[in-house]
Amino acid sequence: MNTEPSRRSFIKKTAIAGTAALVLPTIIPASAFGANDRINAAVLGINGRGNSHIQGFMAQKDVQVTTLCDPDMNLLTAGKKTFKEKYNTDVALEQDLRKVFDNKDIDVVSLATPNHWHALATIWACQAGKDVYVEKPGSHNISEGRKMIEAADKYDRIVQHGVQLRSSPSVQQAIKLMREGYIGRVYMARGLVFRMRGDIGDKGVSPVPEGLDYDLWTGPAPKRPFTRNLVHYNWHWNWDYGNGDVGNQGIHETDLCMWGLDVGFPTKITSMGGKYLWNDSKEVPEVLTSIYNYPDENKIIQFEVRPWYTNSEGGATVGNIFYGDKGYLVVDGYDKFQTFLGEKGTPGISGDDGAAASSGMDRGAGGTDGHFANFIDAVRKHDKSILNGPVETAHLSSGLAHLGNISYRLGRVLDFDPKSETFVNDPEADKMLTRDYRPGFEVPDQV
Question: Does the global pTM surpass 0.85?
Answer without folding.
Answer: yes
